[in-house]
Design goal:
Elements: H1 2-26, H2 53-58, H3 63-76, H4 85-88, E1 104-105, E2 111-115, H5 121-133, H6 144-149, E3 164-172, E4 180-188, E5 199-206, H7 217-230, E6 236-243, E7 245-254, H8 258-266, H9 276-289, E8 296-303, H10 314-325, E9 330-336, H11 343-352, E10 357-360, H12 363-372, H13 374-378, E11 380-391, E12 396-402, E13 422-425, E14 429-438, E15 465-474, E16 484-491, H14 492-495, H15 504-520, H16 530-539, H17 548-568
Parallel strand pairs: 5-6, 5-8, 8-9, 9-10
Antiparallel strand pairs: 1-12, 2-11, 3-4, 4-14, 6-7, 11-13, 11-15, 12-14, 15-16
Helix pairs in contact: 1-3, 7-8, 7-12, 9-10, 10-11, 15-16, 15-17, 16-17
């Protein structure tokens, strides 16, 4: 009986496919996007799962392929066929592999160099997995540095004419009492909104068929209404959309004309294939035509990252964006949606484009990114920000940088002003942690794997200092900027917090790190536990004006529950 039902279901699916193909061939084949009043309601097969129509016609359909394709097709022609979501949805999300930083011997590798990162996309994407998907995220979706940057901290403003300032301190590592935790806290100068230069913003909106879902283009359109209210008279907005071919939806319009800008956003509909490369080229062309000297010139790409038509390789897009970056037009990327989400591609493009990368999973996040933090996300006060730390082998045996795996730099890159690094926006902060094994510790995380040098011998200079810290950055300008150097040498008195004093930001941030390590099942997680994270986060929640830290605690509780359920499977 089950076998008969199976063949009946397969027959229905095949009939649906051929009916749909027939409808599609008779429909208008144009991929051009249009405004709402001009949109034709055509039935079409969207290549979300990269299934070619010709392939469906010419090749035998395996049962599993048919089952995966059926829900979308059945829904399109109202066949009434319903299959379980677990069968009907193909997940083609992409994440770059993360090779977690290991402990380094200070004798052999005394210097650590990395580019800062202000992205927050990983945290909100993981939140989507926990809340919406009700499952633990893929290991490679977790970038701990982006977890840290999601939250605000009470760091001191830079002194004098500096665009950035820093502070360093050490406390015991919560997950391993034999280790110490060094926090590097960097704060960008906050500029009042009225004092910010004018902005030339070019929105590049993905209106392809893959953006039809409620959590993609419709969510973006609602979020954009928040941004429009933040615009000032000196700001301008242009809109380019792409779906098969690219076009200008809104010419450069002053921020005072909020009705026109809002209508341009809300009138768009999704449909057609994706030609991301053509859209990016046109968006940069519009940005150049309306370039504001001394202003904030930026392209804002809003997409699920599914570039599948035209110049689609990440390498080709990176070269295109890198070329435009030299003209001081930055790139911000807003990611949306699930199922075919291309995280790896969007992070790479934002890095090369002197920009930042956020993920919008709900309307409140849209309000956060495009409302509360809009100018921090869109106006850079420091570019090519690099950090370099040298540890004293007499004081520190080994160390590891937590996170920032794809932001590591060579030692010589620090002084190379041509080497690209991260940007910081108005009022933004960056937090990084090093896990340290002190020289007098009983622990020995790293044993030398290298042979002794034949022609050189290392000499350790006697010093009671623990480390030398350097920070290099440029102030954004229209010409060739020269980097500025901030540096300090610090000993125990400089680094260790006073006994009995509790730094709530330090405690909370260390709980965030611990959360990331558990999600990744890090070999360095030590005695980490969901219970300990929750306890630490509750103790350091503070005022929590916007409720972000309270939400973090709920996410940890959900992760704990999902983890316990997976153990029972």
């Amino acid at each position: 009986m089950k076998q008969k039902r199976y063949y009946l279901m397969m027959f229905i699916i095949l009939v649906n496919i051929y009916i749909l193909i027939g409808c599609t061939s008779a429909s208008d084949e144009s991929n051009e996007f249009s405004m709402t009043e001009n949109v034709k309601e055509n039935v079409e097969i969207k290549n979300d799962e990269n299934l070619e129509v010709d392939a469906i016609i010419s090749k035998p359909i395996k049962p599993v392929m048919a089952l995966e394709a059926a829900p979308m097709m059945a829904k399109s022609i109202n066949s009434g066929l319903v299959l379980p979501p677990s069968i009907g949805q193909m997940n083609t999300e992409e994440y770059d592999r993360i090779n977690e930083n290991t402990f380094k011997s200070v004798l052999e590798n005394p210097v650590s160099t990395f580019s800062i990162d202000v992205d927050t996309a990983s945290y909100t994407n993981v939140r989507r997995y926990l809340l919406q998907n009700e499952e633990l995220p893929p290991v490679d979706a977790v970038r701990i540095e982006e977890f840290l940057q999601y939250f605000s901290y009470d760091y001191a403003q830079p002194k004098g004419d500096n665009s950035v300032g820093f502070q360093l301190d050490i406390e015991e590592a919560p997950w391993n009492v034999k280790h110490q935790l060094l926090r590097v806290a960097i704060q960008a100068k906050e500029i009042k909104t009225e004092d910010l230069p004018p902005s030339n913003l070019v929105f590049l909106l993905d209106t392809s068929g893959s953006m039809k879902a409620d959590n993609k283009l419709p969510l973006l359109q609602k979020s954009m209404s928040v941004l429009v209210e933040q615009l000032r008279p000196q700001d301008t907005v242009s809109i380019v959309a792409y779906a098969g071919s690219a076009g200008v939806i809104l010419e450069s319009t002053p921020g005072t004309d909020k009705t026109t800008i809002t209508r341009a956003f809300t009138d768009l509909k999704a449909g057609g294939a994706t030609a991301g490369s053509a859209g990016i080229e046109l968006a940069y062309k519009i940005a150049e035509e309306n370039y504001i000297k001394g202003g904030n010139n930026r392209v804002i790409l809003c997409t699920d990252g599914d570039f599948n038509v035209g110049v689609s390789s990440t390498g080709a897009l990176e070269r295109l964006i890198e070329e435009k970056r030299e003209k001081n037009i930055y790139l911000t990327i807003l990611g949306l949606g699930m199922g075919n989400y291309k995280d790896s591609r969007m992070e790479s493009l934002s890095n090369i484009g002197n920009g930042n990368y956020a993920y919008i999973d709900n309307l409140l996040e849209g309000k956060k990114v495009l409302g509360k933090e809009i100018w921090g996300n869109l106006f850079a006060v420091a570019k090519d920000v690099k950090v370099q730390v040298e540890f004293n082998p007499k004081k520190v045996s080994s160390y590891r940088l937590i996170g920032y795996e794809n932001r590591l730099l060579n030692r010589e890159d620090f002084n190379d002003d041509n080497k690209d690094a991260g940007e910081m926006g108005s009022g933004q902060s960056v937090t990084a942690f090093y896990e340290l094994v002190l020289a007098d510790s009983e622990d020995n995380e790293v044993e030398s794997q290298s042979d002794s040098l034949v022609f050189q011998k290392s000499t350790i200079i006697p010093s009671q200092d623990i480390l030398s810290f350097k920070l290099r950055y440029k102030k954004p300008a229209d010409g060739d900027e020269q980097s500025q150097l901030l540096s300090v040498i610090m000993d125990e008195a400089d680094l260790y917090n006073n006994q009995g004093e509790t730094d709530l930001d330090f405690t909370f941030a260390s709980a965030v790190v611990e959360f990331g390590m558990l999600l990744c099942d890090s070999p360095y997680k030590g005695n980490s536990s969901w219970e300990h994270i929750i306890s630490q986060a509750k103790a350091s929640k503070g005022a929590d004006e916007n409720g972000y830290r309270s939400e973090f605690i709920k996410l940890v509780e959900i992760a704990e529950l999902l983890d316990s359920l997976s153990d029972k499977d």
